[in-house]
Automatic annotation (TrEMBL):
It is an enzyme of class 2 (transferase). It catalyses: ATP + protein L-histidine = ADP + protein N-phospho-L-histidine. The keyword Coiled coil applies. Residues 40-85, 172-217 form the PAS domain. This is histidine kinase. Its EC number is 2.7.13.3. Keywords: Coiled coil. GO terms for molecular function: protein histidine kinase activity. It comes from Nisaea acidiphila. CDD domains: PAS.
Length: 822
């Protein structure tokens, strides 16, 4: 059979298969089962590293080319594949004669004729680049496209040479078809009219069409109509003039999938001549993912560019001096405005003129910084003294980190002005020395311990107070060792040593503020004050308080003596008050008794006269009636005055007994108040114009101390007369009582002179008086306050203003729960 007998489509497919095999670098083989002969394509020979002079390898020879580590697996794969009637694929390494190792993808499938498997067809493709250099796939694709164009031209020449090889073309028809179908790119053959003659299987993956359904369709089916029309114009021009802008070149165009989606492809068109006819082979590659990757790469580049721009702006606005330095030539690549101000570099000065060594107070520091900037461990806290353009110096804190700047490995260095911090540190150091000197020379002992109870600082005074071996109080020693020494020495008294040590250690670990005393073996007493100082540390201060304790003891004794003297004065004041009451009562009793004596004398004289008249029988009726009248009047006067005297004596007796006994008993407030007032009335003799007004609740009874009650009333009465009225002044003293639930309120009020606020504030203080030169002791109102608030368990309040009199409100419980007997 001659080549001319082959149909147009069949010839075109054979040509396309051969071209695709060369372009795609896919070798093929055809194993004829009947003859056990394997036919290898030229590309397969090339991939296996064989030349035209080498014998055609059978399966055993092929296994020897397979890498030793993969032979067993490939052999097993093929034996399994032999038993199946479907396509199979695997990847393995081959070892060429020149020693190079390549990765190949092997595919095989059965060939049936008349329902019988007559042969096995397979392809072999070099996939080393895909396995080993996926990152370079884009460059590889470019080289492959160039190879496709070159191989297409070579295939055209080869087609002319092999037109006579009809038997071989017939045999290779199926092989070439499978090669095209095995290609990853879509391959379409069209005639000069733009009609699709064939399409490989990759068309389905790329466009979504079944390959057979495209045969006879127009090229516009796969590309947009505008693109198809333009390319058809190129083809028509090529057919007329033999010149073309697209033949043998790769162009990016827009294609359309079966679903209507438009997507980018790379289109490569080559002319194929066979049997006097012209065909065009189009290789179409979907570059959607590549476009997306390129778009993402561009967007990333834009973002990176924007980030670099923002970084520059950020660095320019930073108040910290920042510079970027190239490591090898130590060239300054960037410096912000703050950096220029730090070194007083004039604006606009080129970076190359900034200088380096002259910016260091010590030139040796430049090399230190340069080495530190480009080590594996960049500097983070290097403090150096730097120099400005005007010669002034300042302290700089350096930080550096390696970066990539404008595609160059560099170091970014931050410069922080720490001059103020260094000044403050110097001042703090000086103050620390002053504090240390103050502590060392302080009269008080001082020790600072940390959270581990170790001695951080101890002054000489504390060492003197503790009087322990010097090695125990060295910094770093545990303060617990000092406590154990003191316990064993007996500073904490006799008893269980371990128990006392544990108690002392517990006090040391108690981080709350505490104050206690320490009695040293020398007999001195020290006040010890402990304060937490943060982070578990404790400050302990010891002060010699021996003299203070002695002074306190003397003061306590003096206070005790003073309290005894005060009690004696209070008792004397009470007795003086009682004495005054006795004198008043005695004076008051003298009047009725004198009147009774006068009346009795007068009756006695009249009786003697009537007796003499009776003896002489000279008594007349008129005389006797006169005597009876005198006797009746005299006895009436005697009786009334003696009754008055008896009443005064009875009242005085009850009040005097109560004041002296201080016993608690129940009594009627109204009657007892009136008895007390009766005993006080004689004191109004010197105040003839001062009246006494009583308004009491007759039913109020309390269980309390009547003596204290009378003493309070007596002192208030005496105080009102002494301070509220002059001897010729007029006014009224009012006493009122009223019951309030389980209490009674007694109001003692006068409308006398009153007092100012300062006097009112001190009225209840002991020994306070406004008439010390007139015999006032200043204890009367103090006694009133103490009796009311302690023994009577009540309250007392004073209200007074100058010229408005004075009022005392006393509230007493009817049944005090607690009585404060003195």
């Amino acid at each position: 059979m001659s080549a001319k007998d082959l149909g147009g489509n069949r010839l075109a497919d054979a040509i396309a298969q051969r071209n695709a095999e060369r372009i795609g670098r896919i070798g093929s083989w055809y194993w004829i089962l009947e003859t056990d002969e394997i036919v290898w394509s030229e590309e397969a020979f090339r991939l296996l590293g064989l030349t035209g002079t080498d014998a055609t390898p059978r399966w055993a020879e092929f296994l020897k080319i397979v890498h030793p580590d993969d032979r067993e697996e490939v052999d097993i794969w093929f034996r399994k594949a032999w038993k199946t009637d479907r396509e199979n694929a695997t990847e393995c390494r081959i070892q060429r004669a020149d020693g190079s190792v390549r990765w190949v993808e092997a595919r095989e499938g059965p060939v049936f004729e008349g329902g019988k498997k007559t042969a096995i067809f397979g392809t072999i493709r070099d996939v080393t680049e895909r396995v080993e250099r996926m990152a370079e796939i884009q460059a590889l694709n470019a080289r492959q496209e160039e190879l496709v164009i070159r191989r297409t031209s070579e295939l055209q020449d080869e087609i002319a040479k092999r037109e006579a090889m009809q038997a071989e073309l017939a045999l290779s028809e199926a092989m070439h078809r499978n090669i095209v179908d095995s290609a990853a790119d879509a391959i379409v053959t069209i005639d000069v009219g733009g009609c699709i003659l064939s399409a490989n299987r990759a068309v389905k993956d790329t466009f979504g069409y079944d390959p057979d359904s495209l045969v006879g369709q127009r090229a516009e089916t796969l590309v947009e109509s505008g693109v198809a029309a333009k390319h058809q114009g190129f083809i028509d021009n090529y057919l007329r003039s033999g010149q073309s802008r697209i033949m043998g070149r790769t162009a990016e165009v827009s294609a359309r999938r079966a679903c209507g989606e438009v997507f980018p492809v790379e289109l490569s068109v080559n002319e194929v001549k066979a049997s006097g006819r012209i065909f065009f082979c189009a290789i179409i590659r979907d570059i959607s993912e590549r476009r997306s990757a390129e778009l993402e790469l561009r967007e990333s580049a834009e973002r990176l560019k924007e980030s670099e721009s923002n970084l520059r702006k950020l660095l320019d606005l930073s108040p910290v001096g920042i510079t970027i330095v190239e490591p090898h030539a130590h060239k300054r690549l960037y410096a912000n405005e703050a950096m220029a101000k730090m070194f007083m570099i004039p604006e606009g000065t080129p970076l190359s003129e900034w200088g380096a060594v002259e910016t260091f107070a010590d030139p040796k520091d430049l090399e230190i910084v340069r080495q530190a900037n480009f080590t594996e461990n960049p500097i983070s806290d290097l403090e150096l003294l730097r120099t400005r353009r005007d010669g002034s110096t300042w302290w700089c804190l350096h930080y550096s980190r390696p970066i990539v700047f404008a595609g160059t490995h560099a170091a970014i260095v931050w410069h922080l002005d720490i001059s103020n911090r260094k000044r403050i540190e110097a001042e703090l150091s000086e103050k620390e020395q002053q504090l240390r000197s103050t502590i060392d020379n302080a009269p008080a002992g001082f020790v600072l311990t940390d959270r581990a109870e170790k001695i951080v600082l101890m002054n000489d005074r504390m060492r003197e107070i503790l009087d322990v071996p010097a090695e125990l109080v060295e910094p770093g020693r545990c303060y617990g060792d000092v406590l154990r020494y003191l316990v064993e020495r007996g500073d904490f008294g006799a008893g269980n040593t371990e128990e006392k040590y544990q108690r002392a250690l517990g006090g040391l670990r108690n981080l709350t503020a505490r104050i206690h005393e320490y009695n040293s073996v020398s007999g001195k007493i020290f006040g010890v004050r402990r304060h937490p100082a943060g982070e578990g540390s404790v400050v302990t201060v010891a002060v010699d308080v021996t003299e203070q304790k002695e002074s306190e003891e003397r003061l306590r004794q003096a206070l005790w003596d003073l309290e005894l003297a005060q009690d004696e004065l209070v008792q004397s004041e009470k007795m003086a008050s009682l004495g005054g009451l006795v004198a008043g009562v005695a004076h008051e009793i003298n009047t009725p008794v004198g009147t009774a004596v006068t009346a009795a004398t007068h009756v006695r004289e009249e009786t003697m006269k009537i007796r003499a008249a009776l003896a002489n029988n000279a008594v007349g009726r008129a005389q006797f009636d006169g005597y009876l009248s005198v006797a009746d009047e005299g006895t009436r006067i005697i009786e009334s005055n003696l009754h008055r005297a008896a009443q005064l004596i009875r009242s005085f007796k009850q009040v005097a007994v109560d004041q002296s006994s201080e016993e608690r008993r129940a009594f009627n407030v109204d009657s007892y108040l009136r008895e007390t007032v009766d005993s006080l009335r004689p004191q109004l003799t010197n105040y003839p114009k001062v009246g006494l007004d009583l308004e009491t609740d007759a039913d109020v009874r309390i269980n309390s101390f009547p003596g204290a009650f009378a003493q309070v009333l007596s002192n208030l009465f005496v105080n009102a007369l002494a301070h509220g009225f002059d001897s010729d002044g007029s006014g009224t003293i009012s006493i009122r009582t009223i019951r309030l639930d389980d209490q009674v309120r007694l109001t003692f009020e006068d409308d006398g002179q009153g007092m100012d606020a300062d006097t009112r504030m001190h009225i209840f203080e002991p020994f306070f008086t406004t008439k010390r030169g007139s015999g006032g002791s200043g204890l009367g109102m103090h006694i009133v306050y103490n009796l009311v608030t302690t023994q009577l368990s009540g309250t007392i309040r004073c209200f007074s203003n100058p010229g408005e009199g004075t009022r005392f409100d006393i509230t007493l419980p009817l049944e005090p729960e607690i009585c404060h007997d003195k």
